[in-house]
Queue: 2 jobs
Job 1
Amino acid sequence: MTERFEPTSLEWVERCVKTQKFTANDQGEVCAICTHEFEEGEDASTLKCKHQFHPHCVKEWFKKKAICPVCRASARY
Ligand SMILES: [Zn+2]
Ligand SMILES: [Zn+2]
């Protein structure tokens, strides 16, 4: 375990997070950072682990930690 959870740059976030329009799936996704549900057609950022967050929420979060707030998987590629 040599993973480091250091502050990240916005440039890094852009590379590791895919942002696209949210489309409802059978899980009824909620942004775990602000705990608000996604609205159909809203922008959603998807991490490597498939968890989805609001783009502005995830950018704030990644200033502190480069891990998924839900499953704690490393968000780095
Ligand atoms: Zn959010
Ligand atoms: Zn996750």
Job 2
Amino acid sequence: MCDKPVEGRGGVAVTPSGLKYYLDTPAGHQAAKADMQASMGPGSAEGTAPAPPQAQPSPPEGCENYEDSMWDKPCSKYFKFSQMKYKPVANPDANLSVTQIACNWQKICQNVLDPLIDAGFKITISSGYRTPAFDRSLGAKNTIGDHPCGRATDLQILGQGDPSEKAKDLFKYIGKNNVGPFSQLIYEGRWVHVALGGNSPAGVSVLVARTGAAPYQQVGGRAGPSLPPDLKWA
Ligand SMILES: [Zn+2]
């Protein structure tokens, strides 16, 4: 008999309910990178993504009691904390505690991901929360970006069909309906990056980077007035 979760092999672990996550170790970082490469393709590290100027601490709200025993528990209608894919650790660069990061994740699940499920999108979280160590291993120079603050996630619609076309539908739906409302929305080709409560300046909150890497094309603020024709939602 062995009912303990599998933990540690190759840097990958599985929660009792069967959700896969990564350990914050070099092996865990390698495993996450390999999975991101496989589903997102080139540019998956987003190493050159513009970081917000400064992340502000957000007071925990409604999840002040976050503790490790909640890792495999629901944080929203459809999602669990463990879908962050890394257990939250404090982020000194951004002055955020474990609880604040868990709360940020809960908010993005409640305000962005749940509404997308309700709208019928079969989303896959390709990269959710990134620990500071993992973020650095992807090339980040500081860890004040939205992923290491628990405020951003990369979403894909996998399965049959061209992932880039399905990402366009998702991007346009989020933009048109102002889902969240998001603080940043990026069409990155095979996936969509969406942030909630981050510090993206209003003028650059919607961006296009078709291969998930620089140059990031600014399309004129959160209404995206300068979007290319195939990404226009209005
Ligand atoms: Zn991203």
